[in-house]
Specification:
The complex is a heterodimer of chains A (289) and B (159).
Chain A lengths: L6 H10 L4 E4 L5 H6 L7 E4 L9 E4 L2 E5 L4 H6 L8 H10 L2 H4 L4 H7 L6 H7 L3 E6 L2 E6 H4 E3 L2 E2 L6 E8 L5 E9 L7 E11 L5 E8 L8 E2 L1 H7 L6 H14 L10 H24 L6
Helix pairs in contact in A: 9-10, 10-11
Chain B lengths: L2 E8 L2 E8 L4 H8 L18 E4 L2 E4 L12 E3 L12 H8 L9 H14 L5 H7 L10 H18 L1
Parallel strand pairs in B: 1-5
Antiparallel strand pairs in B: 1-2, 3-4, 3-5
Helix pairs in contact in B: 2-5
Classes of the chains: A alpha+beta (289), B alpha+beta (159).
């Protein structure tokens, strides 16, 4: 294991050792995959000493979250106020306290599997990630960064350092729903995040919807359903039309956790609940998480 | 396999131990330091039994490579109290007979410690949330919740 104490050492190391190297933060995902022999790293590089990437800040209309921020750090941050209760919804269903005290934002993005609860939320917030190598930095949308199951755009000499998204305006809200076996176990049958912005006349000005599986095994946006809702009045009829579109749009699969049919019914139900929660938030009612 | 010198604090005592890259914190605590109070359950981060406090926060010691605990302050159940001088949380667990087989209890007590430091007067719901990551297969949760409430009220009284 290589144990760098600062980012410069780490980036230098990554640039000169480009094969067989796996980055490890707090290991909630990677250690299991090593035990199951799904990965066989020649060298692990421990990121936990790099506290400079552990922050939540507000800057230029953006919320910026360092990659080594844990889920607990995030929801304890005063910047993540009640407008961002969507992250508390994620934290409650993400895992028990010992998991959310360990799992990092960057780790959840880079693991890039359908079970990563943060990804749908970052997709509907239209978040970016910032990656760094010794040669420089680049910014990529989360949507483009996650390329497939366990596949990201991260090059072997790069480190994901930050994710950022625009602050929510007062006319915007975001919510997250998940159904799995237990709230404190990680793997969801289905999860769903919704971002909703209402215009002054209560028309849906912007709708973004993401599920952990739309077509295949990575979180993606449900764009046809978004299109159906955009510009319409938010009411029962709109919601019914949206659900009808969603039924055609979602290409879910069966596995040992749940069948395709069950997943579809659950997906439609939690979608309606998530939209309802966004509407409640915009109406200014107290929402219990 | 590379070796490292791990310097860290466990239950207030400083240690320097030679560890291998792949050794887990759980194994170093149990086998190198002889602190057998921390138990191994599922080894995959699902059951929460191997919980210890790292810099005051509950973590699963089965999912941490020992070297990642360098410069950290670890508290295990042995650092909470002893048979001669039990901690108020341990006394409350005994009072309620909250321990059946006992396997999950070290983690339950450490989770309680983290909870009560943040929230000295928790509701049953708060207690459920704080202990939700730890599985008790004797299903003795109700007495555990009562014990946490008793511990909280005793600790508030003691302040």
């Amino acid at each position: 294991m290589f144990v760098p104490e600062n980012a410069a050492d780490l980036l230098q190391y990554l640039d000169s050792h480009q094969t067989g190297v796996h980055l490890i933060a707090n290991g909630t995902d990677l250690i299991n995959r090593i035990q199951r022999k799904q990965v066989n790293p020649k060298t692990l590089v421990d990121l936990t000493g790099l506290s400079e990437f552990r922050y939540v800040k507000r800057e230029g209309g953006m919320i910026k979250i360092g990659a080594l921020t844990t889920i607990s750090d995030l929801v304890a941050s005063p910047i993540i106020d009640s407008r961002y209760d969507v992250f508390r919804e994620v934290a409650m269903k993400f895992g028990g306290p010992s998991i959310i005290n360990m799992a990092t934002i960057g780790g959840n993005i880079c693991s890039a599997s359908s079970s990563e609860d943060l990804l749908p939320v970052l997709l509907v917030l239209d978040a970016d990630v910032q990656v760094r190598s010794i040669h420089g930095e680049r910014t990529i949308r989360v949507e483009d960064f996650v390329k497939g199951k366990r596949m990201t755009d991260l090059k072997s000499n790069e480190l994901l350092v930050e994710t950022s998204f625009s602050e929510l305006e007062s006319c915007s809200a975001c919510s997250f729903e998940k159904v799995g076996m237990r709230n404190s176990l990680i793997i969801a049958f289905v999860n769903c995040a919704v971002f909703l912005r209402l215009a002054e006349n209560k028309l849906c000005d912007e709708v973004r919807i993401a599920f952990n599986r739309v077509n295949g095994k990575i979180p993606q946006r449900a764009r046809q359903t978004e299109k159906i809702m955009k510009g319409t009045m938010l009411n029962e009829q709109t919601l019914a039309n949206a659900v009808a579109t969603l039924r055609n749009e979602l290409k879910l699969t069966s596995d040992f956790r749940a069948s395709e049919e069950y997943r579809l019914e659950v997906a439609c139900a939690i979608f309606k609940r998530a939209v309802g929660r966004c509407a409640d938030r915009l109406a200014g009612e107290k929402v219990l998480v | 396999m590379s070796k490292h010198l791990l310097k860290f604090s466990v239950n207030g005592k400083d240690y320097a131990v030679v560890v291998q890259s792949h050794e887990r914190l759980l194994d170093v605590l149990r086998d190198k330091l002889g602190l057998k109070g921390t138990k191994e359950g599922c080894s995959t981060g699902d059951c929460g039994i191997c919980g210890v406090l790292m810099d005051g926060k509950l973590v699963n010691s089965c999912l941490i490579f020992a070297i990642q605990a360098r410069n950290k302050k670890i508290v295990t159940i042995e650092g909470i109290g002893s048979a001669e001088k039990p901690h108020p949380i341990q006394r409350a667990f005994m009072k309620w007979n909250a321990s059946q087989c006992g396997y999950c209890i070290p983690a339950m007590i450490l989770a309680t410690k983290e909870l009560l430091e943040k929230n000295p007067d928790p509701t049953t719901e708060d207690i459920k949330i704080a202990t939700r990551g730890i599985i008790c297969r004797c299903t003795g949760y109700l007495k555990i919740f009562e014990a946490v409430k008793t511990a909280a009220s005793e600790m508030r009284g003691a302040e």
